[in-house]
Amino acid sequence: MLLRVQFGEEQKYVKLSELTFDAFLKEACLKFNIPESRQPDIKVYDQSDTEVDTEVFEEIVKESPGTFRIMLGNGGLGASQSSSCSGTSDDTVILNFTMCDPVEEVAAAEGSQPKRPCHINYEAKALIEKILTSKPGGERIMQEYGKTKSLTDATRRQMINILAAEMTETHGTSPPKSVRVMYAQGIVALFPYLEDPYSQHGYEHYYDPESGSGYLAWRLKTIQRKTAEERGASVSKSPKVGGPGRGRQPVSPSALPPSDEDVEAAISVLRHSADEKTVREKMEMTFIYRQAMVNDEAKSSDVFLVFPRFLDTPGLIEQDFRLMFGEATANKFLEKWPTTFKAKVIKESHGLVPTTELLDLMRNAESAAEVENGWDSDMSAILLLLHLLPPSAQGRKRPGKLSAYQAVDQLIRFQKVGTSVQQHLDNITQSSQPYLLAQGSTQSTIHSYFIVVDKHALPCKATGSVGAFDELFKAHYVFGTSYSFSLSSFFTFVQTTIYNIDMGETKETPRVAELRARMVR
Length: 521
Hints:
- The protein has helices spanning 21-31, 57-63, 122-134, 138-148, 153-171, 177-190, 215-227, 260-270, 276-285, 287-294, 303-306, 316-325, 327-349, 356-366, 377-388, 404-407, 421-426, 465-478, 488-498, 510-519, and strands at residues 2-7, 10-15, 42-45, 51-52, 67-72, 92-96, 412-416, 435-442, 445-453, 456-459.
- It is an alpha+beta fold and 521 residues long.
- It has a 6-stranded antiparallel sheet, with helices on one face. The protein has a 4-stranded mixed sheet with strand order 7-8-9-10.
- Strand 7, helix 17 and strand 8 form a beta-alpha-beta unit.
């Protein structure tokens, strides 16, 4: 916590790692070179001139924010203050800070933001407001937010350019981390609907001090490259390991885990049994063994040899996913996409640069009747989300960058009914991440879906596009496979924002956090 402190004519910030009376007194003495021997002489008074001591300090701070006066020595509480900094009895320390009530907590199953204490940095807010009101284009940014409680991508870029230019003009092309944090804090303080309720502080998509990423950080790097190309050093990023590919135990483990002999016997039964009840029972028994297998690079390619029932028994992907995460998480997409996110995705897509492909998707997504050409309404809306979170460049010179339209093939492919699925698999020239194969008379009339992974086609239990996509997402976790690079932002948004899996533990782009901030309000 940063506290503003005045001692005599000097005013500085004091940083507290813990909110205690002793910690404040110690840090204030260090900041203003007050001898430790004088610390017992310091007296603290609240705005009603009532003395505050160690027993009530924290409570007063939390419940009655305001100005605290700190006296050194035996000086009284007069209206005038001495300008001396030598430690006389009239020296004072004035502490200003503000705290606000915590954000309301709503059940995660309802898709609301997690509970986080709200600490508004009013100095940072005032700084951003001053910059925007004094720079060309800044007023328009504030007016747009006032009307829409949001900023378009173009307006957000303009805001970042204005703030980064001011930051580098004042603090140089490599401003301190504390300055970058203050600017990021100021943005969400001035524009609270831009805050990401799922991140630790809410401003990380503008600047994340742990990884050095965010819109402000990226703009600063661009400025640094333009002004001093030879100084473009890479940023050390803290690892985040959320998402598919990490080993997981069942949410409700059995009291007595099966022995190695039982697992081997169950695997033997699974190779030959066609009885669905038996298959499901043995698959559940071998879940932990299978998870270890799919997350072992040397063994993962054999999963369909050891567990061939994936190839002919729909619903086994769903069963494994429920064992990992439980019923509530497994149901989230089917519950929240049709009722909440589909309409919000369609609304956000109206702000994108229109292309023929995008306009076709928007028309189909908004259609209440059967679609004549193109994907059905639900799949069209899912593909609109891909356009909102398009593939990222693979490096500075962007080799192999795909458009959102080109990346659709990595998510879903259409096959005319009557065409051999095996022929489709035989034509695969290189391994790829899981994708949907939709068989039907037209794209809008699909009879069956398959998940294609490692040149195998796994039948989906779902017959609708929403259910099929739900199974495709879950397949990444069941088989321990990472997201396709081109679909990484797209799937990460679905993972953290809709399923609420590994929130805060998954590496996200600022675009993912920004889109979430728009949609979950």
